[in-house]
Structure formats: C-alpha cells, structure tokens
C-alpha cells in the first residue's frame, strides 16, 4: 500500500477562505488530480475516495470546498445562473495558484463534472485530462424530478441535520443553492455544449446506469462533443455516486485510463 501524506490548506480569495486538502504519495508522478464536488458536497463527503485515488494512480489528489460549502467561508449571495462556468475563474483559479499547478487533471462529480468541463475549456494548455462522474450537460426532466424528490425528503423533520454535519450554519444555503437554482426558469435552458466543444484534452466520462439525476444521454453528449479523444463507461447497477456505489470499478477504470 502506497504511503500518502494528507495536508489541509486554507486558500485566500476576495470573497473569503477556501478549505482544501491534498493527498500526496511518497513519490508522486504526473499531473495532480483536482476534484470538484457535487451540489451538496464538500471535501469530507468524498470520504476515502481521494486517498484511494492517490494510492491507485500514484498522483497527488487535491479536493476543495467551494465558497459556501463545507469548511470554506459562507457565500455572500445567491448563486448566479452562470455559476458552473464561473467556478473555473474563481475558486478553481485560486486553487491552481495556491498549489502552483502548471498542469492538472480535472475530475468532477455531478455539477462538479460540469465545472470540470469548464475548467478544461478555460485552461486548455494546463489541463492534461478530464474525468466526469455522473455529470449533467443540460437540465433534463429526470434531473428536476430527482431534485424535487430530494427537496421533499429534506423537508422532513431532522433531515437537515445530515447537511449541517458537513456544512454547519451554511446548510440551508447549500440546499437552496441547489434546489432553487436548478428548478428556476432562469436556469431551464442551461447547457454545457459550448464548453464541451472547447475541451481539447482526453476525456473519460463515467455514469451509473441507474443514475436518478440523469440518463446516459449526458455521458454520451460529453464523449461526442469534446474535441480530444474520449472514453465512455456506463456502470451497471449503479446510481448517481459511482465513487461510493461502485468504488473498486471506478478506481480501476480511472487508474487504467489515466495511464
């Protein structure tokens, strides 16, 4: 088993501090993998995936809490409809600068997958590869149905306690940033297509066949529109979180592909 050094970081931005962690093997090689979390996520909710990813690939893995999430500072406002693309020039840019990354691999889950696409499009010379896990490329009816169901579940007594364990006093903002934005008319016509068409690097699109927030049309769109070579894998008997529900297969696919 490869020894991995875990370190915590606090990254200054004009809107407040971002929290990040890095997992560095004894002798790392290749570009670091930078993880972008989902709509309710944070560093802690990746659980042991970053550690196992560092061990499997031999690369440094970096994960950070976006502004408003986890251990990062509170977000000062509501999310603009451009928030997916904005992350590449805001929080992600601060992470690149803090770690001095000249090259990187962008890996994102769910909406973080869309952000990873935008990062690959924004930094074509630095981004060596792109990995999306259960990413959405447009506002699909199935996505909205899943969000409305989750919204009803979080309305039940005590349900918000789960979010508060990871986001503290920011938990209600986190939930509404997800549900209010995606269910709004202003966001209804959002699409990832223009950014996908700017991606030049190799791309791996992973998606669970039983994903409750999007069908296989999303990874198919990613693989079809990126300009670099692409690989698509649908994971059987897997829902929206392959790195938890199908961890060994997900790690093996990434390890094999990234070589």
From TrEMBL:
Residues annotated as transmembrane: none
Keywords tagged on the record: Hydrolase
InterPro entries listed in its UniProt record: AB_hydrolase_1, AB_hydrolase_fold, AB_hydrolase_sf
GO molecular function, one term: hydrolase activity
Domain AB hydrolase-1, first and last residues per copy: 32-139
SUPFAM superfamilies: alpha/beta-Hydrolases
Protein name: Alpha/beta hydrolase
């Amino acid at each position: 088993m490869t020894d991995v050094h875990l370190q915590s970081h606090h990254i200054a931005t004009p809107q407040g501090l971002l929290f990040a962690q890095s997992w560095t093997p004894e002798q790392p090689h290749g570009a670091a993998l930078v993880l972008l979390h989902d709509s309710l996520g944070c560093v802690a909710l990746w659980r042991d995936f970053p550690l196992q990813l560092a061990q499997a690939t031999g690369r440094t893995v970096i994960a950070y809490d976006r502004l408003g999430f986890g251990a990062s500072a509170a977000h000062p406002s509501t999310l603009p409809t451009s928030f997916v693309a904005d992350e590449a020039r805001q929080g992600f840019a601060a992470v690149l600068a803090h770690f001095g990354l000249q090259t990187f691999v962008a890996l994102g889950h769910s909406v973080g997958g869309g952000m990873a696409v935008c990062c690959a499009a924004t930094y074509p010379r630095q981004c060596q590869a792109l990995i999306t896990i259960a990413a959405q490329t447009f506002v699909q009816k199935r996505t909205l149905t899943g969000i409305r169901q989750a919204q009803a579940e979080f309305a039940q007594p005590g349900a918000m306690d789960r979010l508060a364990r990871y986001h503290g006093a920011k938990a209600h903002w986190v939930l509404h940033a997800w549900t209010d934005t995606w269910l709004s008319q202003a966001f209804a016509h959002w699409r990832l297509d223009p950014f996908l068409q700017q991606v030049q690097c190799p791309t791996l699109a992973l998606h669970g066949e039983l994903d409750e927030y999007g069908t296989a049309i999303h990874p198919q769109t990613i693989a079809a529109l990126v300009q670099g070579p692409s690989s698509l894998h649908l994971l059987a008997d897997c829902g929206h979180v392959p790195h938890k529900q199908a961890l060994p297969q997900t790690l093996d696919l990434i390890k094999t592909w990234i070589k």
